């Protein structure tokens, strides 16, 4: 996987934050419901505490019957989540925790 090769992780969003609008075809997050086909979880097996489903298209809608992964997509008016088949090809959005060494400045994600 592209993210793990660069010592990063596929995006998982625990809370509200930046919406990503600099893409055309959508990007992958680590969100999925592969485990039981019902409950959405991040790669860390944590449920989302914040959701941003595209209400314009009634997401998550499992339109093709196999939409078990979360994609971030810009629908033309806003950036939202879409459930989509995990076999589709999109760019991943990776995140990496960075820490300052030798100080108490805490950690952040980029």
UniProtKB/TrEMBL annotation:
PROSITE patterns: C_TYPE_LECTIN_2
Every C-type lectin domain range: 27-95
Alphabetized InterPro entries for the sequence: C-type_lectin-like, C-type_lectin-like/link_sf, CTDL_fold
Protein name: Perlucin-like
Species: Diabrotica virgifera virgifera
Taxonomic lineage from the root: Eukaryota, Metazoa, Ecdysozoa, Arthropoda, Hexapoda
Gene giving rise to this polypeptide: LOC114331400
